[in-house]
Design brief:
Elements (H helix, E strand, L loop, with lengths): L1 E5 L2 E5 L1 H31 L5 H17 L5 H25 L4 H7 L4 H22 L2 H19 L4 H22 L4 H5 L2 H12 L4
Antiparallel strand pairs: 1-2
Helix pairs in contact: 1-2, 1-7, 2-3, 3-5, 5-6, 6-7
């Protein structure tokens, strides 16, 4: 157990904290690899049967949001809600187009982005958190490229090839981001636990 001095007092990082950080990093890595593999298969082999890569992608982001440390609980919950809504959108897309026809359906009717877009908004939120905490350039790339690619496709301002290029660049940056996290000490991802304790105490106080 390692002790630190926080803004609101001393705190300790436990073995459970370190396991959560490892889980967060592994989940984010699984999502990054799955997204990169999905886009590579789409580019090299076509848009059929991409759905198996969606399972680790969706699960990885969901688990990352389970273990991520964000001081503001409403923001944390908002990202989890976006993830859930996006997952429901993917299920609706699979039911409508069939698992093998999901990418074709989105390309033919970009309005499906309204349904699945919240998932990618949650992923962009993770990128923003990573940039806000660590100022990594690849993190701001993830944050910006996802909405630019999806909104460009939705509005018709970007052709499919340009959207695919932006998503491929974002996937590469996400992979770099996750790989660079593993050498970092666990304390970097945990943050100041005294702030979490203070905010929780504020929430527990009875309202006048």
């Amino acid at each position: 157990m390692t002790s630190f001095e926080g803004v609101y007092g001393p705190f300790s990082i436990t073995a459970d904290d370190e396991r959560e950080v490892l889980g967060y990093r592994l989940a984010l890595l699984a999502a990054a690899v799955a997204q990169a593999a999905l886009l590579w298969q789409w580019r090299q082999l076509g848009d059929g049967w991409l759905w198996p890569w969606l399972l680790p992608l969706l699960a990885g982001v969901g688990l990352a949001l389970r273990w991520i440390h964000i001081y503001l609980r409403p923001l944390h919950q908002a990202l989890q809600l976006l993830w859930l809504v996006g997952c429901v959108g993917f299920v609706a897309l699979a039911i409508s187009a069939g698992p093998a026809g999901m990418a074709t359906a989105v390309a033919a009717d970009p309005r499906w982005i309204w349904a699945i877009g919240p998932f990618f908004a949650a992923l962009a939120g993770i990128g923003f958190k990573e940039f806000f905490c660590f100022r990594r350039p690849e993190a701001i790339g993830v944050t910006l490229l996802l909405p630019v690619a999806l909104l460009g496709a939705l509005s018709g301002l970007l052709p499919l090839a340009a959207t695919a290029t932006l998503l491929g660049l974002e996937a590469a940056l996400l992979l770099v981001l996750t790989l660079r996290k593993f050498p970092m000490p666990a304390a970097a991802d945990i943050g100041d636990k005294s702030v979490f304790a203070y905010l929780e105490a504020q929430r527990q106080q009875p309202k006048p």
